Amino acid sequence: CGAVVMAQKGARPYDRIGEQVFAKVDKINAELFTLTYGSIVTQLVKDYEDLGEVNTQLEKMGYNIGVRLIEEFLARSNVGRCADFTETAEVVAKVGFKMFLGITANVTDWDAEKKEFSLVLDDNPLTEFVELPESYNKLWYANILCGVIRGALEMVQMKVEATYVKCVLHGHDVSEIRVLLKEILTDEIPASMRDE
Amino acid sequence: MGIKVVCASVIGKSNNPLYIRCFDSTEEALKFHYIVHSALDVVEEKSTAKKGASLDLYLGMLYPTEDYRVYGYTTNSKIKFIIVVQEDGDSHDQAIKNFFRKFHVLYANTVANPFYTPDDLITSRKFNEELEKQVKTV
Question: Going edge to edge, which strands form the sheet with A175-184?
């Protein structure tokens, strides 16, 4: 399967790396994962009632996951330093998402300065079986992913903003996260540690 | 040869209807509601009759009416599926069993939705659409 992909796309290395790493990591049952995440979201909805607040909380949770997850990622994937932000995007989409969620995302819609891109997800294990009730239009169900991206990239000296712009649960045909590079951090203590 | 599912329903633990959908526009829905409701008594009978031997989830034909036959299927969580079928000729037991199996899987997927509380009415659009597809390909 990896060989076919390479022949078609002219040897995109990150697809192959992603699949190799994915083969080596431990797996858990997908339904258990989906149901666990689902109960987190519904509990948050019950606790906070305001859907905008739930989005914020999910993003914060994701951030805390991301700052820890990056270490696991770097240790397992052996991917070296990225030359530029475009490479970072590919690594996140093909290796990161593959390793932790078993799916690959596509990187599209770069802006002129190469500081902003879209991550397009065809399917997402988090949203399997989920149907949002009608009044939940403001909720970005898988918003935790935006936080994970922000947290992980902050640990490798990139300050980004990740936001959902499209979601299959809202009727779109794909899900799309827009990632914007705000600044490259240089030898600064990250904000989360600075307050102490 | 044809079997036509004219009504499919999901009944909850306390015999409360969670979902009733009729696929035959020529008949009044109420008639099917009544048929399903009376079928519940037969379901009770069948599930309490065989003590310890009821490993089968499929209950078979519950009772025949003049134009239709009613089939039932129960789960260990006391959820019951009852369908009303219009059949010509012999009973196609295997096809009905297959239908129930798919119906069961569809129900399980719908329950997996974190926004659905078990024992609620089923209002999922996906459930409706999938069921329609399954009914067409019985």
Answer: A106-108, A116-121, A175-184, A158-166
Chain B residue with CA closest to A136: the answer is B115
Predicted ipTM of the assembly: 0.77
Test mutation, A32, A33, A131, chain B, max B CBs within 10 A: A131
**Contact A129/B125, CB-based, under 8 Å?**
no
DSSP line for A164-187? EEE-GGGT-SSEEEEEEEEEE--S
Amino acid at A95: V
Query: Phi/psi at A185 (nearest 5 deg)?
Result: -85, 135
One-letter amino acid at A89 equals A
Could you tell me which of A176, A36, A23, A16 has the C-alpha nearest to residue A91? A16
According to DSSP, the residues that pair with A158 across neighbouring strands are: A184
pLDDT tens, per residue, chain A with 196 residues: 444 444 444 346 899 999 999 999 999 999 999 999 999 999 999 999 899 999 999 999 999 999 999 999 999 988 888 889 999 999 999 999 999 999 999 999 999 999 999 999 998 999 999 999 989 999 999 999 999 999 999 999 999 999 999 999 999 999 999 999 999 988 756 667 665 5
A38/B110 CB distance under 8 A: no
Which residue in this structure is represented by tokens 């192959």?
A: A16
Burial readout A127-144 (b: 16 or more C-beta within 10 A, e: otherwise): bbbbbbeeebeebbbbbb
Burial A95-120 (b: 16+ CB within 10 A, else e): bbbbbbbeebbbbeeeeeeeebbbbb
Q: Which of B5, B64, B61, B11 has its CA nearest to residue B35? A: B64
| A164 contacts A146 by C-beta, under 8 angstroms | yes
Helix (H, G, I), strand (E, B) or coil at A132: coil
pTM assigned to the model = 0.83
- Pairwise CB contact (< 8 Å): A130 & B115: yes
Does B109 sit within 8 Å of A38, measured CB to CB?
Answer: no
